[in-house]
Structures are given as structure tokens and as C-alpha cells.
């Protein structure tokens, strides 16, 4: 008996502009939203704990946005806090505390959010708002604007108004182009001897399309504020503001025209590409410039993030001139070599085969991005080199090698069930981190058993994340957007190139089936008459409720372990559902694995997959009722 209370508690915050010069936090007259169904007292406890956790994360990890959740007792709470990037961490914590102070007054609903000028906080009983802030909202969310209310004599002149109008359009266009979805800039208005400040920020980790859509609305609402000297737009997916009063330091602004010009330049490049001959010239110039820049750089310099820029020569020596004996593995991205640096540190060096100059240019950006990812289930990037014609990545060395060797390779049968379970959970946690905990969403695109490395204590470490775009495109494959491995890639991605975090969920499901069965996903099951792919085989056993038979025969399971294996097989099948929307997010998978939940009311449907002829396969009905008729 759930009481559907839809209550909108409007708590007006008193406007408190903190005027000390050491802080710029301002609070607007913004309503709190508190609604949904009546929360249990357990939900309220979980909420309080999640909100505390947000503040703890911000202040301990010195970041400006955080997510926290608590699912104790089956009353899940998912919370998110985000500050504007111009704040210091201390100002951020102050703002978030102010938001939480107001949020905890929400006692009649299980869904609440608060908008302040400098930050926002939100919690829900579900996690999908992390990726799509407007989920469950009718229309495009509760967006509203606040315009400063000044007398007519103080409004902007027509001329200035046009300048500000253009400025707001530029902010709209630039924000989704930035990887952090944040822009702050200023524009001098000479004839009025004034400066206009503007910024916009989309919700952390959402995709560019959602950000763009929100900025389109923000653009209209802010322009409707003109000729006021200040306007603000609040929405679940974005915040935007312009003001004549500075609300960030001049040195925190960025050159917006260069962000927009970047876009313009790439269009020029495409045109040049069509002309053909020009391309070569253009690339040569870019390459020369790139080389020159590299040479001027000191070798082995440590950047601010602690990643080393290695000297190519040192790595050549460390890998014994990239000798065959040092090869640890060959992969789509290039070969991996064992290297000994300074006669003591053993590392792995991955040599990327990148012919494309453009890809090489992107390399530095990508490396900076992935070198900041730290998680115990993700392989650490220790350094890199982009001198000469090769791109080299220096990675943690994992003596145990990759998971596939333990499932069907030389070390087959050496992993017991507990180790396998820890590996499954570790992969899920690593992916959840890439998708929703790191400030930029990273989709791996190529999850497979040979990309999972094992540490000395058999913990999973995901390799090759953030590198999919450097993979050479498979010329035999019609879809150039596809950079994955058949057998592990879901149909919508393998056939149409549709990319989302659910691509990784699908591949994860396949890897779990491999871990449970000790079988490779694409191997036909030759010892049976029925020639089936692993997913097909698993599904047919599941339909007959005998999916325990999928288990690797080298495993010796007790009764409770058998039950566990069956539940995890069901989770794996849930991960391989189509369409993608039916698949859980990786954060949800982590919870399911930890809680040992059964799927409950979720109905699984027959999965589809792509076979090695590049065809989508719909698994046919199994002959559940026929029993032993086919000898
Ligand atoms: C900010 O300045 C005020 C005085 O103007 C001072 O009392 C306060 O401690 C300062 N706060 C911080 C965080 O420095
Ligand atoms: C949650 O926090 C609010 C504010 O601190 C407090 O009033 C309330 O008692 C807390 N509730 C629980 C169940 O801890
Ligand atoms: C979750 O919340 C409960 C209170 O409901 C608290 O006792 C527990 O420590 C919290 N768990 C985590 C991991 O924060
Ligand atoms: C702001 O607007 C309100 C009505 O919305 C009006 O009563 C008030 O005088 C205005 N204030 C100024 C400073 O213009
Ligand atoms: C500003 O533009 C409005 C119409 O857009 C016009 O009515 C007004 O006269 C203009 N003011 C000046 C000072 O040009
Ligand atoms: C512009 O404004 C600044 C301060 O607001 C003032 O110092 C300066 O003299 C002004 N310049 C002109 C040309 O009015
Ligand atoms: C930016 O300016 C502020 C004050 O104007 C100063 O305290 C701060 O150090 C500057 N930051 C940088 C990175 O230059």
C-alpha cells in the first residue's frame, strides 16, 4: 500500500549573499523540490548517510562533484552533488552544506533536489538520473529562469544587448563541446565601459546531446531576461548565468572563441579532405608542428598528475629493442612488451600502431584523461611516450596475465569459485567507475576476457580503457564506428555502431558467462550435436531452469555456491538483453552482485547476438516440453 503523495514543499531560502572578500558563494531564492512517495524511516536514514558521504567525498578527495549511495535494508538512495567549477573546494563544501541543510527538511517525498547559484544537490530512490537528469520528469525538467529586476534606466542599451545576445549564443554552443561540459568567459563592452560575465555547466557525466538540449532552452530563457543586467537559468541538466557583476575571477575564464573556432577548423579539415591533395599537405604541416612541439619538451618530465613522459630511447632499451622474447601479448591496439626500467621496475609497454596523425594528436588528451583514472580494478597507466613514430604506453605489469588463460588456456581450472566471484565483482566495479564515478564518462567498448588482467592475488584489473578510438578500424567491417570484438559486442553496436554504456554491460554479461562456464563465447560447442554459441547455450539451459549445468566442470560447488552461480548467471543474462534499455547500468549490477538479490519480477527475454558471419541471431525457442524425444 503505497501512498502516492505528490507534495511540493516550497521552502524559500533567504537570500544570503556572503560578502566577505574571501568567498563568493551566493544563494538564490530557489525553491526546494520534495515529492514522490512517502519515504520509510529507513530511507531517511540512508538518505542522511548518503548526504553525509557526499560532503565527505568532496572534502577528502578535493573535488567539485560527488555521488553517493546507500541501499541498506532495500530502501536505496542515490545522491549527487555538483558545484560550479569556479569555486574552491572549501566554497563548494560550504554551498553543498547549505543545500543539504534544506534538503533534509524533505520528509514527505523520496525525491528531492535543491538549486543554489553555486551548486546543486539531488537525491532519488533510483540511479538512472545520474546519466539522464530528466528521467521521470515530464517534459524537459523543471527549468526556470530568474532575471534581475532593475528599473528601466539601468537596462542594457540596444547595442550592448546585441553583444550580450551573441555572447549567450556562444556560451550555448561552447558548453557541450568541452569535455567537462563547463564554460566560463567574459566579454568587454567598451562603449559602456563594462564587462559581462557568463558561464554554463551541465550536470556531471551526462552525454553531450542532453547537455546541448538543455543549453538550447537556457539560451532562450536567458535571452528572455534581456535587457536585464543579470539572468540565471536553473535546470536538472544544466545551469547557466550571465551577469555584469563578476562572479568568478578574471583568470578563471576561458577563450570561448577558440573553443568555437576549433569546431570551425575541423569543418575546414573535412572540406580539405574532400579535395584530396590538400590533405597530405595539411597533415604534413600538423605532423611537423607536432614533432617540433615534442622535441622542445623535456624528456621524462613529470606532469602535474604524476604520470611520467618517458624517453623513447629508454623504453627501447628497457624492452630489449622491442624484442620478440619480451612480447607479453598481441592485441588489436598493438603489441605489449615486458620492460625493465632502471634494472628493477618491471612494467608493461604497449606499442600503439597509429598511422593516423589526427589520432596521434588526440593521444595526448586521451592519455591525460586516462592517467587520472584511479581505481583498484582498472590497470594503472604509469607513463607514456609519443616521440618518433610510435605511441607507447607504460602500464602496470601483471605477472598473472589475462583472464582467458585461466578459463580455457594453459591455466584452465586453477580458479576456484570464490576467486571467480571476486573477479566478476571487480570487473563490474571497475566499469561502474568508468561509467559513472569518474568525471568524464568513459565507455570501454572492448570488454573481453583477454582484456581482464589478474593481479598477484587474482583481483581483476581492466586494461585498455579509453583507447577504443585508437584501435585500427577493421576494414572488413562495414561499420566504421565499431571498435570492439565480435562475440562480445551487442547487436546495436556491432551492426549499427550505436554506442552507450550499455555496450559494456552486454560485454560484461558475456564475460561472466565465460567465467562461469570456462568456455569461450564464440567457440561452438563441438562435443554436442547442437552447435551453439555460449549465450545461446546459456539461455536454453536457463529456459529449462537447469542453468546450473552451465558451470565449468572443473568447479566443485556446494549447495549455496550453486545457488549463487545460478543467480549470477541470471544477472549475466539480464546484462545481455536487447534493446539496450533493458540492461542494467554497471552501478546497478554491482549492487545486484553484492546484495545477492534474485531478479525478482524482472522477466528475461531471449537475448540476441551477432554471429561470426556478422548476422544478428535471434535465439529460437528451445523445446522445453518435448523432453527426451530427440535421443
Ligand atoms: C573569511 O573572512 C572573514 C573575515 O572577513 C573571516 O572571519 C573568515 O574566517 C574567513 N574565512 C575563511 C575560510 O578564510
Ligand atoms: C536526518 O537528518 C536530519 C537533519 O540532520 C535530522 O533532523 C533527522 O533526525 C535525521 N534522521 C534520521 C533518521 O537520522
Ligand atoms: C548506510 O546507512 C545506514 C543507516 O541507514 C548506516 O548505518 C550505514 O553505515 C550506511 N552505510 C554506508 C556504507 O555508508
Ligand atoms: C522588482 O519587481 C517587483 C514586482 O515583481 C516590484 O514590486 C519591485 O519594485 C521591483 N524592484 C525593483 C528594484 O525594480
Ligand atoms: C531599441 O530597440 C527598440 C526595438 O527593438 C526600439 O523601440 C527602441 O527605440 C530602441 N532604442 C534605441 C535607443 O535605439
Ligand atoms: C571605466 O570604469 C572604471 C571603473 O569602473 C573607471 O576606473 C574608468 O575610469 C572608466 N573609464 C572610462 C573611460 O569611463
Ligand atoms: C586568480 O586571481 C586570484 C585573485 O585575483 C588569485 O588569488 C589567484 O591566485 C589567481 N589564480 C591563478 C591561477 O592565477
From TrEMBL:
<keyword id="KW-0067">ATP-binding</keyword>
<dbReference type="Pfam" id="PF01657">
    <property type="entry name" value="Stress-antifung"/>
</dbReference>
<dbReference type="GO" id="GO:0005524">
    <property type="term" value="F:ATP binding"/>
</dbReference>
<dbReference type="InterPro" id="IPR002902">
    <property type="entry name" value="GNK2"/>
</dbReference>
<dbReference type="InterPro" id="IPR017441">
    <property type="entry name" value="Protein_kinase_ATP_BS"/>
</dbReference>
<feature type="domain" description="Protein kinase">
    <location>
        <begin position="322"/>
        <end position="599"/>
    </location>
</feature>
<keyword id="KW-0325">Glycoprotein</keyword>
<dbReference type="GO" id="GO:0004674">
    <property type="term" value="F:protein serine/threonine kinase activity"/>
</dbReference>
<dbReference type="Pfam" id="PF00069">
    <property type="entry name" value="Pkinase"/>
</dbReference>
<dbReference type="InterPro" id="IPR038408">
    <property type="entry name" value="GNK2_sf"/>
</dbReference>
<feature type="binding site">
    <location>
        <position position="351"/>
    </location>
    <ligand>
        <name>ATP</name>
    </ligand>
</feature>
<keyword id="KW-0547">Nucleotide-binding</keyword>
<keyword id="KW-0472">Membrane</keyword>
<feature type="transmembrane region" description="Helical">
    <location>
        <begin position="268"/>
        <end position="290"/>
    </location>
</feature>
<keyword id="KW-1133">Transmembrane helix</keyword>
<keyword id="KW-0812">Transmembrane</keyword>
<keyword id="KW-0723">Serine/threonine-protein kinase</keyword>
<keyword id="KW-0675">Receptor</keyword>
<keyword id="KW-0677">Repeat</keyword>
<dbReference type="InterPro" id="IPR052059">
    <property type="entry name" value="CR_Ser/Thr_kinase"/>
</dbReference>
<keyword id="KW-0732">Signal</keyword>
<keyword id="KW-0418">Kinase</keyword>
<feature type="domain" description="Gnk2-homologous">
    <location>
        <begin position="140"/>
        <end position="247"/>
    </location>
</feature>
<feature type="signal peptide">
    <location>
        <begin position="1"/>
        <end position="19"/>
    </location>
</feature>
<keyword id="KW-0808">Transferase</keyword>
<protein>
    <submittedName>
        <fullName>Uncharacterized protein</fullName>
    </submittedName>
</protein>
<dbReference type="InterPro" id="IPR008271">
    <property type="entry name" value="Ser/Thr_kinase_AS"/>
</dbReference>
<feature type="domain" description="Gnk2-homologous">
    <location>
        <begin position="24"/>
        <end position="128"/>
    </location>
</feature>
<dbReference type="InterPro" id="IPR000719">
    <property type="entry name" value="Prot_kinase_dom"/>
</dbReference>
<dbReference type="InterPro" id="IPR011009">
    <property type="entry name" value="Kinase-like_dom_sf"/>
</dbReference>
Amino acid at each position: 500500500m503505497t501512498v502516492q503523495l505528490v507534495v511540493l514543499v516550497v521552502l524559500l531560502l533567504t537570500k544570503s549573499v556572503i560578502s566577505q572578500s574571501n568567498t563568493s558563494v551566493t544563494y538564490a531564492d530557489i525553491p526546494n523540490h520534495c515529492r514522490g512517495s512517502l519515504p520509510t524511516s529507513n530511507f531517511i536514514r540512508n538518505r542522511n548517510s548518503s548526504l553525509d558521504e557526499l560532503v565527505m567525498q568532496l572534502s577528502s578527495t578535493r573535488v567539485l562533484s560527488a555521488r553517493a549511495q546507500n541501499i541498506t535494508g532495500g530502501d536505496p538512495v542515490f545522491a549527487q552533488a555538483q558545484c560550479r567549477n569556479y569555486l574552491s573546494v572549501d566554497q563548494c563544501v560550504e554551498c553543498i552544506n547549505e543545500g543539504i541543510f534544506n534538503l533534509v527538511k524533505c520528509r514527505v517525498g523520496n525525491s528531492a533536489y535543491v538549486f543554489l547559484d553555486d551548486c546543486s544537490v539531488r537525491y532519488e530512490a533510483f540511479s538512472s538520473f545520474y546519466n539522464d537528469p530528466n528521467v521521470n520528469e515530464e517534459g524537459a525538467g523543471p527549468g526556470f529562469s530568474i532575471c534581475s529586476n532593475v528599473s528601466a534606466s539601468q537596462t542594457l542599451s540596444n547595442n550592448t544587448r546585441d553583444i550580450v545576445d551573441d555572447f549567450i549564443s556562444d556560451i550555448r554552443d561552447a558548453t557541450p563541446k568541452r569535455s567537462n561540459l563547463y564554460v566560463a568567459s567574459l566579454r568587454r563592452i567598451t562603449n559602456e565601459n563594462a564587462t559581462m560575465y557568463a558561464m554554463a555547466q551541465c550536470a556531471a557525466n551526462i552525454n553531450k546531446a542532453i547537455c546541448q538540449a538543455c543549453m538550447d532552452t537556457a539560451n532562450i530563457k536567458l535571452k528572455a531576461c534581456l535587457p536585464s543586467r543579470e539572468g540565471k537559468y536553473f535546470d536538472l541538466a544544466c545551469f547557466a548565468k550571465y551577469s555584469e557583476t563578476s562572479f568568478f575571477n578574471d583568470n578563471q575564464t576561458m577563450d570561448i572563441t577558440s573553443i568555437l573556432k576549433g569546431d570551425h577548423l575541423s569543418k575546414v579539415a573535412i572540406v580539405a579532405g574532400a579535395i584530396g591533395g590538400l590533405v597530405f599537405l595539411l597533415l604534413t604541416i600538423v605532423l611537423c608542428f607536432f614533432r617540433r612541439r615534442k622535441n622542445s619538451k623535456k624528456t621524462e618530465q613529470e606532469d602535474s598528475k604524476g604520470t611520467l613522459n618517458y624517453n623513447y630511447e629508454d623504453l627501447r632499451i628497457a624492452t630489449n629493442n622491442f624484442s620478440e622474447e619480451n612480447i607479453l601479448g598481441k592485441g588489436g591496439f598493438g603489441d605489449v612488451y615486458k620492460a625493465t626500467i632502471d634494472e628493477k621496475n618491471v612494467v608493461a609497454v604497449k606499442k600503439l600502431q597509429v598511422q593516423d596523425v589526427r589520432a596521434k594528436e588526440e593521444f595526448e588528451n586521451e592519455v591525460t584523461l586516462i592517467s587520472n583514472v584511479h581505481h583498484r580494478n582498472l590497470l594503472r597507466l604509469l607513463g607514456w611516450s609519443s616521440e618518433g613514430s610510435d605511441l607507447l604506453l607504460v602500464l602496470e605489469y601483471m605477472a598473472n596475465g589475462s583472464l582467458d588463460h585461466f578459463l580455457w588456456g594453459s591455466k584452465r581450472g586453477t580458479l576456484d569459485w570464490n576467486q571467480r566471484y571476486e573477479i566478476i565483482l571487480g570487473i563490474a566495479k571497475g566499469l561502474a567507475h568508468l561509467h559513472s564515478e569518474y568525471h568524464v564518462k568513459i565507455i570501454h567498448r572492448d570488454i573481453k576476457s583477454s582484456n581482464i588482467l589478474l593481479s598477484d592475488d587474482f583481483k581483476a584489473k581492466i586494461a585498455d580503457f579509453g583507447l577504443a578510438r585508437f584501435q585500427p578500424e577493421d576494414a572488413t567491417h562495414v561499420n566504421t564506428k565499431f571498435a570492439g570484438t565480435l562475440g562480445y559486442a551487442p547487436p546495436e553496436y556491432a551492426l549499427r555502431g550505436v554506442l552507450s554504456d550499455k555496450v559494456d554491460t552486454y560485454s560484461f554479461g558475456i564475460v561472466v558467462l565465460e567465467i562461469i562456464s570456462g568456455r569461450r563465447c564464440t567457440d561452438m560447442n563441438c562435443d554436442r550435436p547442437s552447435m551453439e554459441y555460449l549465450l545461446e547455450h546459456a539461455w536454453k539451459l536457463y529456459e529449462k531452469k537447469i542453468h546450473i549445468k552451465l558451470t565449468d566442470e572443473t568447479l566443485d560447488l556446494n549447495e549455496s555456491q550453486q545457488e549463487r552461480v545460478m543467480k549470477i548467471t541470471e544477472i549475466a543474462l539480464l546484462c545481455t538483453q536487447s534493446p539496450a534499455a533493458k540492461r542494467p547500468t554497471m552501478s546497478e549490477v554491482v549492487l545486484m552482485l553484492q546484495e545477492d538479490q534474485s531478479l525478482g519480477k524482472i522477466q528475461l527475454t531471449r537475448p540476441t547476438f551477432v554471429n561470426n558471419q556478422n548476422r544478428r541471431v535471434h535465439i529460437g525457442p528451445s523445446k522445453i516440453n518435448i523432453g527426451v524425444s530427440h535421443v
